[in-house]
Amino acid sequence: MGEQIAARIAGLTHRYGKLTALDDVALEIPAGCMVGLIGPDGVGKSTLLGLISGVRKLQSGTLQVLGHDMGSVRERSALGARIAYMPQGLGRNLYPTLSVRENLDFFGRLFGQSAREREARIAMLLEATGLAPFPDRPAGQLSGGMKQKLGLCAALIHDPELLILDEPTTGVDPLSRRQFWDLIDRLRGENGRMSVLVATAYMEETERFDWLAAMNDGKIIATGAPAEIRVQSGAATLEAAFIRLLPGAADEAGVELRPRAARPDAVPAIVAEGLTKRFGDFTAVDHVSFTIPEGEIFGFLGSNGCGKSTTMKMLTGLLEPSSGRSELFGEPLKSSDMTARQRIGYMSQGFSLYGELTVRQNLDLHARLYAVPPARRAARVAEVLAEFDLGEVADKMPESLPLGIRQRLQLAVALIHEPPILILDEPTSGVDPLARDAFWRKLISLSRDRGVTIFISTHFMNEAERCDRISLMHAGRVLEVGAPAEIVTRRGATSLEAAFIACLEGELPPEEAASPPLATMGAPETRPPSALARALGRAWAYSTRETRELLRDPIRLFFALMGPVILLLTMGFGISFDVDRITFAVNDQDRTPESRALIEGFSSIPQFARQEDFSGPDALSRRMERGTPTLALEIPEGFGRDLHRGTEPPEVSLWLDGSMPFRAETAEGYASGVLALLESEITRGNDSAAGLTFTPRFLFNQAFRSADAMVPSMLMLILMLIPAIMSAVSVVREKEAGTMANFHASPVRRIEFLIGKQLPYLALSWIAFWVLIGLALTVFGLSITGSLPVLALAGLLYVTATTAFGLFLSAFTRTQVSAVFATAVIAVIPTVNFSGLIVPVSILGDSARIFGEAFPAAWFQPVTVGVFLKGFGAADVARPLAILCAFAVGYVTLAAVALRKQER
Amino acid sequence: MLRSLRNIGNLTLKELRAIRGDAVMLVLIAYVFTAAVWLVSQAGSTEVRDLTVAVVDDDRSQLSARLIDAIRPPLFRAPDLLTPEAAQRAQIAGKEVLVVSIPPDLEKDLRAGRGGAVMVLVDATAVAFAGNGTSYVTQALAEAASDYLAPGTGAESPLNVVVRNRFNPNLSATWFTAVMQIINNVTILMLILSGASLLRERERGTIEHVLVMPVHPHEVVLSKVFANGGVILIASVLSLVFVVEGAMGVPIAGSLPLYVAGAAIYVVAVASLGLMMASYTRNMGQYGLLVIPVMILMLLLSGGITPMESMPQWLQILMRTVSPTPHFVAFAQAVLYRGAGLWLVVAELAAMAAMAAVALALVLRRFRKLLS
C-alpha cells in the first residue's frame, strides 16, 4: 500500500440543525497503528468516526480515507469493503434473535463472500475470539463482553484495512475489556497493515495506543503519542492530563476520600442475606449477601447483565426476591412497605425523570410524592436547586440539558426527601471525567458530612478506588468483598483492575478464558462472482436474515398471519348489510280477519321478527326508547270494515326507530313491499296501472347475501393494511435498533436492501392471501366463478404493491409507533372510503374517484369481486393487473429514492 | 387514604402536563373532535344518493319516457340510455348499479289490459345500496306509471299508510354518523393515549422510578386513567355540544348529564383496556401492532356501523362480553336519540363498569411483572 496516512481531514465542519458537532477540524491520522480518539461525551467523536467510515454524509470540508475522497460517491463505494465500522452501543448493530453464527453469516453475505469463504472466516474468527463454543447462542443472550467480541468479528469478517471502533468497551467488565484489546493486538500482529481507530471514554485504555487525538467541543485540542501528551500537560496519568487540557479545569479540585468515623455498635444500614432472584430458568442473582454499615460508600462492580441492577431493585423493593431477605436499619423490607421506601433515594441506570416536566416541576412532584410537608416543600426545592447548582436551569426541560447536569438533577431528585440511604445504579455511565469528579465530591460529602449510606454500581476502576468497600459480581454471584486496597493485596495484584481480572479469570470456564493461537488470515481466493450475482446475494442476505428474525418474533408473526384471519372473520360476520329479524310489534285494535291478514303479511317473511303486542302510544314509547321494536304497526278499529266499504281508505300507522337510518330505510322498504302486495291483492284488476309489475333481479349475487359481496372486498382492505404496516415496521425498527448502521457501512445498495427486506413480507402476505381465500370458500361459503390463477396472480401483484407501499412510507417515519399509525391511517382512508368497499366507485364524485384510484386498492377490488362473483378471466382484468404492476415498481422506486444511504 | 388521594392527584397533574407537552397529540385530538366529525358525517356512507342507473328502453313510448323521467337526482344520477349489450357490459364493469329494462310494447300491452313487467337488474355486489336502491327505484317508477296511466287514482289507494320515523324524522344519516364518529374517536384516542402513557414511562424507565417511591401501583394506574380519560371525556362532550348539536344542528333528545356519566364510565373502561394491553407489550411498536386489529374490531363490531342484530348470535354475545363499545353505543343511542332515562340504560352502565373493574384488576396484577 505504502500509504502512511489513514485519513486526511481538512476544514471539516458538521452541523445537526443549529448544533455544531465538528468545527473546522483538521487532522492527519497515521496509518498502520492504533489511534485513540478521546474526549468527553458529545464533543463530536462519534460524528468524526461516522464521517471517516462513510456512514455519515460529508457536509463541508475535505476528507480523504485511504487515499479516496469521501465526498465522491464513486470513490466512496470503491472503498466500501476496505473499511469496517463498529458503531457505539453494546451489540447495537447485531441482531439479538439471531445466533452468533447467523449474525456473522449475514455480514459475510453482505460482503459477497462465498459459502466456503464464509465458513472458513467464521470458524477462524470464532476461534480467535473465544466464541467458538457458542455458535448457536442468540446474540441477545451474550454477556456484554461477548457481544463486543461478536461485533468485532462482524467488523473483521471482510478483512478490512481500516477498523473503526466507536466506544467498543463501554459497559464491559475489566477482564472482557482486557481480552478485547489483546485480541485487537493479536489481529494487528497478524495483519500488520490494518489501522485501528478507536473512540473511548476509558482513559486507562488509551495508554496502550500508539497515537492519540483529544477532542473537546467539536475541536481537536491535542495530538501525539500518549507519553507526549502526558509530558505536555505535566500530569501523571492520561486522565489527569486530559482534565488539565480542558479549558477552565485548572481550578477543579481532585477527589479525596476522607476517613469515615466508624461506629461498630450501630445497626447496619443495609443487610442482604442469601438474596436470590430467578426469572424462569435463569438465575439472575444467586445467594448474594452483604452488610453495609451506616455512612459507608459501598461500590458494586461487575459486567453488564451480571445481576447488579436486579440486586439493587430488590433492595429498593421494586422486585420481590425469589428467596433470601434484606433489611434496612434492622427492619425487614417488603415490597409493599411504604415507610421503608421513604428511607431510600434511588437513581436508576440511564436518565429516568419526566422529560415533559421542568427541572423544578420534577423536584416538586417528587417532594409531593415523598410527602415533604407543604410548608417545607418550596423551601426544600429551593435548597436542593441551590445545593446542586441547578438554579439557572430550574425552568428548563431536562431533555435540553447536557448529560452531566441531568445526572446532577437525578441525584438532586433522589435526595429531595433527605433519605439516609442512596442506591445509585451506574450513575456516571457516559459522563465525562470532569463531571464524574464533581459528582463524586458530592457523594463523599453526603457520606462524610451527613452520614448517608451510599450503595453505588460503576464500571470505572478509579471510581471503585474511591469507595470504602467494594464487591465484585459475576453471573449473579458476589466473588469478592472488601476495601479496594485489601482486595489488591489479597489477590497479590498491582492494581485493582488486575485484581479483578485475576478474580474473574478464576471463575470463567477454561474455553472462554483461553486464547488459542490465531489461524492464518486470508481465506482461499475464488473467482469473484458477477456484479449481478453479488447484488442478488446481498438482497438475499437481507431476505434470509429478515425471515429468521420474523420467525422468532411472536408478536409480529401473530400480527402478520393471525391479524388477517381475525379481521376477515370478525368483519365478514360483523359488517353485514343483511337486515334480518327486524323486530316489530303490533297494536291490533280491529281484530278482524283483514287486520290479521295484514299482520300475517309481516310475520310471514323472515326479515321481520314479531314481538309482544303493545297496548298504546305510551307503552310503545317506553319500549322504543329501550331499542325494541324497530318497527311498530297500529291498526285502528274499523280497519276491516273500511277496507271493504272502499269509500274512505282506512289508516294504518307505522312507527320506525330512526336512530339507525340504514336499518330504518331497509325496514321501511320491506314494510312498503308487504303493504304493496296487500294493496294489489285488494285492488286486483281495478286499473291498468295495476297490471304493471316490477321484477328486480339481483345479478352476480342472486341470494343477495352481504358476505358474498363484502368478503371479496375485505380481502382488498386487509391485504392493504397488514402487509403495508409489516414492511414499514421492518425498516423502521432497524432505524430504532441501530442495525441500520450495517446498511450504511456495508456495500449493500438501496434497492438491494429494500427488495431484500420486502421479499419475506411479500411471501408471508401471499400466504395470508391464500388463507383468506380458504376462509372465504369454507367459512363464508363463497364460490369462485372466475379464474383462480388470475386471482392468485392479482393477489401476488397486490401484496407486492402494498408491501412496497409500506417500504415507501418507512422512509418518512422514524419510530415504529409512527410507522404503525401513519401507515394504518394512510392505508385505511382511501381503502375504506374510495375503493368500493361499501360505496361503489361508480357513484363517487370525480375527485373522490381519482383519489381512490391513486392507490392500488381501487384496482384490486374489481378483480377480486369480479373473479369471485362475476366470472372474470384473464381478459377482463388485464388493465388492473398492469396498473398493480406499475404501483409495485413505482413504490419500490420511490422508496429507493427516499431512503438515505448515508446518515446526515 | 388521604395520602393515596393526594398521590393520585399529584400524579394526575403530572400526566396532564405530559399531555399538554405533546403538541402533536393535542392537534390530533382537536382535529378528530371537530373537523373530522364534520367531514365523516358529511360523507354519509350508506345513504342512497347519486346511484348510477342505466335504462334499456325497448318501448320508446310516452310511458317509457315518463318512467325515464322519474329517475332523478338526488337519489339517482341522470340515467344513461343504453343498448341491452352495452348495459350488460357496463354493469359487469361496475359502472352501473341498476339497469331498468323496459320491454317492447309495454304501454300498448298495459292499455290493452295484458299487463307487463319492467325488469330491474341490480348489481348485488354493491350490497349497501342494492336493496334500498331497488325499492326506491321501483317506488318511483310505480308512481310515475300510475300517474300517467290512471291519473287521479293515486289518492284512491285502498290503504292510507302513515309512516312516522321516531327519533330521526328524516332518517338523516348525518345524525347517526356524527354521534357514532365521536364514539369511535373516543375509543381510538383512549386506546392510544392510555397505552402510550404507560409505555412511554416503561421505555424511559420512569415507571420504576415512581414505584421506588412511597406510591402504590394503583395510584399510578388510576392517575393515568383519570388524566387521559378526563381530557378525552371533556373533548368529546364539547364536540357533542358545540360541533354536533351546535354547528351541525343535530338535536339531542336526552339528558346530557346522564350521557356524560355514561361516557365517563366508558372512558375509564377503554383506558383500562388500553393499559392492560400495553402491560403485555414491551414498546410502542409492539403495542401498535396489537392495538390496531383490536381497535378495528371494537369499532366495526360495536353496532355503531352496522346493526348488532345483523351479526350472528354468537358474535353478538362475544362482543358484548369482551368489548365495552357495544354497550356504550347502545347507551348513547338510547340516551341521545331516544331520550331514555337512567332506568333504561342501567344494565349497559353496569356492564361497562364491570369491564373497567376487570381490566383494572388485570393491569394491577401485571404491574409488578413489568419491572422484571
TrEMBL record, chain A:
<dbReference type="GO" id="GO:0005524">
    <property type="term" value="F:ATP binding"/>
</dbReference>
<keyword id="KW-1133">Transmembrane helix</keyword>
<keyword id="KW-0067">ATP-binding</keyword>
<feature type="transmembrane region" description="Helical">
    <location>
        <begin position="759"/>
        <end position="784"/>
    </location>
</feature>
<protein>
    <submittedName>
        <fullName>Ribosome-dependent ATPase</fullName>
    </submittedName>
</protein>
<dbReference type="GO" id="GO:0016020">
    <property type="term" value="C:membrane"/>
</dbReference>
<feature type="domain" description="ABC transporter">
    <location>
        <begin position="270"/>
        <end position="500"/>
    </location>
</feature>
<dbReference type="InterPro" id="IPR047817">
    <property type="entry name" value="ABC2_TM_bact-type"/>
</dbReference>
<dbReference type="InterPro" id="IPR027417">
    <property type="entry name" value="P-loop_NTPase"/>
</dbReference>
<dbReference type="InterPro" id="IPR013525">
    <property type="entry name" value="ABC2_TM"/>
</dbReference>
<feature type="domain" description="ABC transmembrane type-2">
    <location>
        <begin position="672"/>
        <end position="902"/>
    </location>
</feature>
<feature type="domain" description="ABC transporter">
    <location>
        <begin position="7"/>
        <end position="242"/>
    </location>
</feature>
<feature type="transmembrane region" description="Helical">
    <location>
        <begin position="877"/>
        <end position="899"/>
    </location>
</feature>
<dbReference type="Pfam" id="PF00005">
    <property type="entry name" value="ABC_tran"/>
</dbReference>
<dbReference type="InterPro" id="IPR003439">
    <property type="entry name" value="ABC_transporter-like_ATP-bd"/>
</dbReference>
<dbReference type="Pfam" id="PF12698">
    <property type="entry name" value="ABC2_membrane_3"/>
</dbReference>
<feature type="transmembrane region" description="Helical">
    <location>
        <begin position="819"/>
        <end position="843"/>
    </location>
</feature>
<feature type="transmembrane region" description="Helical">
    <location>
        <begin position="709"/>
        <end position="732"/>
    </location>
</feature>
<dbReference type="InterPro" id="IPR017871">
    <property type="entry name" value="ABC_transporter-like_CS"/>
</dbReference>
<keyword id="KW-0472">Membrane</keyword>
<keyword id="KW-0547">Nucleotide-binding</keyword>
<keyword id="KW-0812">Transmembrane</keyword>
UniProtKB/TrEMBL annotation, chain B:
<feature type="domain" description="ABC transmembrane type-2">
    <location>
        <begin position="139"/>
        <end position="370"/>
    </location>
</feature>
<keyword id="KW-0813">Transport</keyword>
<dbReference type="GO" id="GO:0140359">
    <property type="term" value="F:ABC-type transporter activity"/>
</dbReference>
<dbReference type="InterPro" id="IPR051449">
    <property type="entry name" value="ABC-2_transporter_component"/>
</dbReference>
<feature type="transmembrane region" description="Helical">
    <location>
        <begin position="287"/>
        <end position="305"/>
    </location>
</feature>
<comment type="similarity">
    <text>Belongs to the ABC-2 integral membrane protein family.</text>
</comment>
<dbReference type="InterPro" id="IPR013525">
    <property type="entry name" value="ABC2_TM"/>
</dbReference>
<dbReference type="Pfam" id="PF12698">
    <property type="entry name" value="ABC2_membrane_3"/>
</dbReference>
<feature type="transmembrane region" description="Helical">
    <location>
        <begin position="256"/>
        <end position="275"/>
    </location>
</feature>
<keyword id="KW-1133">Transmembrane helix</keyword>
<protein>
    <submittedName>
        <fullName>ABC-2 type transport system permease protein</fullName>
    </submittedName>
</protein>
<dbReference type="InterPro" id="IPR047817">
    <property type="entry name" value="ABC2_TM_bact-type"/>
</dbReference>
<feature type="transmembrane region" description="Helical">
    <location>
        <begin position="340"/>
        <end position="364"/>
    </location>
</feature>
<feature type="transmembrane region" description="Helical">
    <location>
        <begin position="175"/>
        <end position="199"/>
    </location>
</feature>
<keyword id="KW-0472">Membrane</keyword>
<dbReference type="GO" id="GO:0005886">
    <property type="term" value="C:plasma membrane"/>
</dbReference>
<keyword id="KW-1003">Cell membrane</keyword>
<feature type="transmembrane region" description="Helical">
    <location>
        <begin position="21"/>
        <end position="41"/>
    </location>
</feature>
<keyword id="KW-0812">Transmembrane</keyword>
<feature type="transmembrane region" description="Helical">
    <location>
        <begin position="220"/>
        <end position="244"/>
    </location>
</feature>
